């Protein structure tokens, strides 16, 4: 089955690759640490995500890649993870003809970028082959660029991070093929024809093949072109095709536990728990001053001590909001500290930047406004009157999935940082 027409989106997605401290939740990559962006040395990289399966083992009518987790299709999480890696130029998703419109709707609804669609084949290998065809320069009516390296990843492995993607791509550039592996959880046994134990494998000597895998494009494309109908129909292992037809021994890269594949119905519950944990792991304190002795910095220090299981970051809202843009890729909880005045300008600027990002489309974003005043110089009633705009603004932005709360503090009184911090606990 030939792939359908493919097109390249006009605008790139957000990028989280960058210098250390830029707000990325991904581990530092070897290339970033060396002082160069990954894309500077990797060449052109694309990805193919086969998503044509029916999810038979899950036992539900909806294909598992389209099952909803926290009211969002599972495949959307995987696309988000791939899009965050800015050196992946194109992402080709192969879906069946009957699900093509549903996939287009997901791309539009959740603002996915750099995504192209190709028609899936009858089997996994045929779907991957169609995705590779969409990237090949010899295909008519295709505006995609043939990559030097292609990543193959499952649409139902949503927790892939940049570090493992980078390591398999680097290994593929050197060896022609590479794939992530994990230790076996259970011992593998071989039964006899009559259903008795024949023999078992030494678990310590074997590994489970996982995704992502990466290949020099010419290697894997040639392997698929030479593959027999039997391999395309019944095979599942891409690394084996590279070995069998192109004589490339894949480099095996140890991957993290989060590479597991959503396969059964109970896995959806596990995925939901992991996503909830992931989006509540970081708080960004936004301040309107760089003074290291300010209330904002004191709050940041207190949060680090009290919430030591979370990642606490901070930034200063400048006149164009440039710094804060580096923090909105992974963080969904913000504390905006205003010590100077009750003016809503800085708050509205932060909310505008959040609205322009894709975050509120994916999960609720929590913003806590902390206004600090000296109540000994001005009456509390006057201060409260000057902050009534928060209530109306909170109602407005809630419709866009931003949960806005306000906290008014009297900082003229002598109070400990611990007490100041505990005022924040109800929000996290």
List keywords for this structure.
428 residues; alpha/beta; seven-stranded mixed beta sheet; disordered C terminus
Outline the structure in words.
The chain is α/β, with parallel strands linked by helices and 428 residues long. 34% of the residues lie in helices and 21% in strands. The chain has 16 helices and 16 strands. The protein has helices at 30-33, 39-42, 74-83, 100-109, 124-135, 162-175, 217-226, 229-234, 238-246, 265-279, 295-306, 345-356, 359-362, 380-385, 389-398, 417-422; strands spanning 45-50, 68-69, 72-73, 88-95, 115-119, 149-152, 177-183, 189-191, 197-200, 207-216, 251-254, 282-287, 311-316, 333-338, 365-373, 402-410. The strands form 4 sheets. A 7-stranded mixed β-sheet has the order 5-4-1-6-10-7-11, sandwiched between helices. A 5-stranded parallel β-sheet has the order 13-12-14-15-16, sandwiched between helices. A two-stranded antiparallel ribbon has the order 2-3. Helix 5 packs across helix 7 and helix 7 crosses helix 9 (238-246). The longest helix is centred in the middle third of the chain and has 15 residues, at 265-279. The chain is elongated. Homodimer. Residues 281-413 form the D-ribitol-5-phosphate cytidylyltransferase C-terminal domain.
């Amino acid at each position: 089955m030939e792939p359908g027409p493919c097109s390249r989106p006009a605008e790139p997605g957000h990028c989280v690759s960058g210098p250390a401290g830029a707000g990325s939740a991904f581990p530092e990559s070897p290339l970033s640490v060396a002082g160069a962006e990954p894309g500077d040395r990797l060449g052109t990289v694309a990805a193919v995500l086969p998503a044509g399966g029916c999810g038979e083992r899950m036992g539900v009518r909806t294909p598992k890649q389209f099952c909803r987790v926290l009211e969002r299709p599972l495949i959307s999480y995987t696309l988000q993870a791939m899009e965050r890696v800015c050196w992946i130029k194109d992402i080709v998703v192969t879906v069946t003809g009957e699900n093509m419109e549903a996939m287009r709707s997901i791309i539009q609804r959740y603002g996915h970028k750099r995504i192209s669609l190709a028609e899936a084949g009858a089997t996994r290998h045929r779907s991957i082959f169609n995705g590779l065809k969409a990237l090949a320069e010899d295909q008519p009516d295709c505006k995609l660029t043939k990559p030097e390296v292609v990543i193959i990843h499952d649409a139902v492995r949503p927790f892939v991070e940049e570090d493992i993607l980078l390591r398999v791509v680097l290994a593929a550039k050197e060896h022609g093929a590479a794939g992530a592996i994990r230790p076996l959880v259970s011992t593998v046994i071989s039964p006899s024809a009559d259903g008795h134990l024949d023999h078992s494998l030494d678990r310590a000597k074997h590994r489970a093949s996982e995704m992502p895998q990466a290949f020099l494009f010419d290697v894997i494309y040639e392997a698929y072109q030479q593959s027999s109908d039997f391999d395309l129909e019944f095979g599942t292992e891409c690394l084996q095709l590279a070995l069998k037809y192109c004589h490339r021994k894949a480099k095996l890269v140890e991957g993290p536990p989060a590479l597991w594949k959503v396969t059964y119905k109970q896995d959806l519950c596990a995925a939901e728990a992991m996503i909830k944990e992931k989006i509540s792991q970081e708080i960004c304190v936004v301040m309107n001053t760089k003074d290291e002795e300010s209330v904002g910095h004191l709050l940041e220090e207190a949060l680090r001590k009290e919430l030591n299981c979370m990642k606490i970051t901070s930034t200063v809202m400048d006149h164009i909001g440039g710094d804060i843009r580096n923090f909105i890729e992974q963080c969904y909880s913000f504390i905006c500290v205003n010590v100077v005045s009750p003016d809503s300008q800085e708050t509205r600027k932060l909310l505008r930047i959040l609205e322009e990002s894709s975050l509120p489309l994916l999960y609720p974003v929590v913003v806590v406004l902390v206004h600090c005043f000296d109540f000994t110089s001005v009456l509390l009633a006057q201060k409260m009157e000057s902050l009534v705009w928060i209530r109306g603004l909170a109602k407005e932005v809630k419709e866009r999935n931003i949960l806005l709360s306000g906290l008014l503090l009297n900082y003229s009184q002598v109070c400990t940082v611990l007490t100041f911090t505990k005022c924040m606990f109800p929000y996290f």
